[in-house]
Amino acid sequence: MIHEASFMHQFKEGTASMIHVYAMCALAARFSDDSVFHGITRGSRGSIYISEAVRLVQQSIITPSLESMQGLILIGYYYGGEGDGKAKHIYTGLARLHAETLSLWEIPKDGSLLSQEEHRRTWLSVNIASDWSAIDISVEPISLNHGLEVDLLKFDDIAFQSLDPDLVQGTYSSPPSPYNMWAYMARTLGIFNKTSVLLRRMSQGSISFDDYFQEAVVLEGRLDEWEKSLPPNLRYTTENIMSSVNQRLGRTFLAMHIGYHHFRQILFFPFLDARRDHDNIKLTKNASQCKRSANIVSDILRHSTDIENCDLNCFIYGHIAVISSCVHLHTLLFSDNTEALSVARQWLLLNFKYLMGIKSYWPVVEHSVARLRKFHNCCQDSVSDPFVLDNWMARFVTEHTSYPSERQNSAAKPSNPGLESTTVRSICADVHGPHHTRNAETGSEVDDLSHLLHDQQVTSEALVNHALDWLLE
C-alpha cells in the first residue's frame, strides 16, 4: 500500500505524512527493544502514538486523500490488534467513504507509475479491510460498487518495493515470472466472505447443513482453482519458500499460503461435528480436508519461526493459529489413530509456542488464547459435541478481532441423543487411558514442553492442560 523507499525518503526530508508516522509507530513500538520502552508492556506501547494519529486524521475527515485513506487503514489495523472491532470497523469504514468520494478506482493517468500503483494497492487494501472488519462485528460485507480490480496491479511485489521513486516514469515491463502475491491473495477474499456468511447463517438455522454442504462443494472448487492458478514459483514448496526469502518476500509468501489454508480449515470446520454420519465418505473426506489444512497452517507457522525474516507476527495469524489448534484438539479428543494423535500433539505444541511468542504484542491474541482455554474446558465438560456449529462457534471461527460472550452449553444439544451416550470427558478417558490423574500431575511438574511431547506416559489431555497453563501465565 505504501512504497517503503518513498516513505523513508520523505521521512528523512521531513515531508512524510505525520498521520502515517504516528500510526506506524503505534503498530511498530511493540516490537522495539529500545531502552526508551523499558518497563512498558509491549501491548500498550502504541497508545500514545495512536492518540496523535487519530487527532491528526480527524482534521482530514471531510478532505479525503490518498494519505488519509492509508492512515485510516493503519489506524483501523491498530484497533484490530487491540480487539476493538467496532473502532476498527469505523476507521476502515471512513477509509472506504474516502475511497468512494475520490473514485479511487479511477487511477489518475497524469501521475507517475509508482503513484498509480499506490492508488491501486490502496484501493485493494480498502476493499480487504472493509470486508474483514464487517465480518468481525457480525455484519455481512457489502461489496463496493467497483469491486476488486486485482488485475490492475501493474508491478509485482519485488518491483514495487525496489523501484527508485525518482526513476519511475514512462513505460514499465513486468518481469517474466512476477511475484504478484498481493493480487493473488486478494482473489480469495470473496471465498472467505461467502464462507463466513454461510457459517453464520447455518449457525442461526437460516440454512440447513445439507445446504451448507452443497455450497461448500462450490467454494472448495473455487479454492482448488485458485491453487491451480498459481504459477510454479508461487506454489507451496520448500524450494519456493527459500526462493521468496532470497527475494525478501518470505513473509508475503507464507502469508499468502496461510490465508489460503485458513480459509480451507474454516470452510470444512462444520464437518468435525461428531453428530454427522461418519459412514458418509464425503463428510469424512471434508473433515480430513479440514485437518490437512490445519496441519499445513502449523507447518507454515513452523517455517515462520525457523527461517530468518519470515516471522508472521501480526495478530491475524494468532487467530489462525487458535483455529488450527482447535482442529488439533478434535484429533486428540476423537481419534484412535496413534500416528494422527502423535502428529496432532506435535502441531498443537508448535502452535502454542508460536502463540506464546506473539501474545504479548497484541491484546487481542491474548484474549484469543484465553478463549481457546474456555473452548478446551467446554470440550472436557460438555454433554454434547463441542464442535457443533452454534452461533458462538461461528463467531469464534470467523471473527479475529471480536470478543464473543460466554458460550451457552445448552445451545449445542445433540440432534440424536442415542448418537452420543457419553460425554466428551469420558471419550477422553477412553482414548487416553486410565492414568489421566497421575499423568496430569506429572505434566504439571515438568516445565519443558518438548520433554512432555516425547514422554509417552503423558496423555494428550495432560499435555494440552499443561501447555495451556503455560500459555496463559
Task: Tell me what the structure shows.
GO terms for molecular function: DNA binding; DNA-binding transcription factor activity, RNA polymerase II-specific; zinc ion binding. The chain is mostly helical. The protein folds into 2 domains: 1-187, no CATH class; 194-473, no CATH class. Helices cover 63% and strands 0% of the residues. It contains 21 helices and no strands. The chain has helices at residues 4-13, 18-28, 47-58, 66-82, 85-101, 113-136, 157-162, 181-186, 189-203, 209-229, 238-246, 250-267, 281-306, 315-334, 338-358, 363-381, 391-398, 424-432, 436-444, 449-454, 460-471. Helix 4 runs parallel beside helix 6 (113-136) and helix 6 runs parallel beside helix 9 (189-203). The protein is globular and about 65 Å long. It starts with a helix and ends with a helix. The relative contact order is 0.08.
**Main sheet summary:** none
Kindly state the number of beta strands.
0
Calculate the mean pLDDT score and round it.
80
- Number of helices, where a helix is a run of at least 4 consecutive DSSP H or I residues: 21
Q: In which range does the helix fraction lie?
A: 55-70%
**Helix/sheet category:** mainly alpha
SSE order, one letter for each helix or strand: HHHHHHHHHHHHHHHHHHHHH
Shape: globular
The whole-angstrom Rg is 23 Å
**How many separate domains make up the residues?**
2
Strand content: under 5%
Q: Cα distance, first to last residue?
A: 37 Å
Organism: Penicillium flavigenum
Keywords: Metal-binding, Nucleus, Transcription, Transcription regulation
Main location: nucleus
Protein name: Xylanolytic transcriptional activator regulatory domain-containing protein
